[in-house]
Amino acid sequence: MLELHKEILVTTGASTIIRAQSVQTLWSGYGEIKRYFLEGGNYPSVIVKHIQLPNGNKHPRGWNTPLSHQRKLNREEMV
Q1: Number of domain units in the chain
Q2: Residue 31 sits in which domain range?
Q3: Any bridge partners for residue 16, and if so which?
Q4: Residues annotated as region Disordered (predicted)?
């Protein structure tokens, strides 16, 4: 997460991340959308979509086929 925080600070010109607030988790544990509240810089807050591929193929309803995984990857590229 430190690299992500550094990237947010550099990109926005902010001096500090005051706090982060979860907005929404992504499908099947593929990451999260968060709002970061900033101090200094050009923006009081930014929304960041952080995609993190899951380690295992575990889904409570069994929706973890190779096809569903590829569909999620293709969808993330479009966003």
Answers
A1: 1
A2: 2-78
A3: 39
A4: 58-79
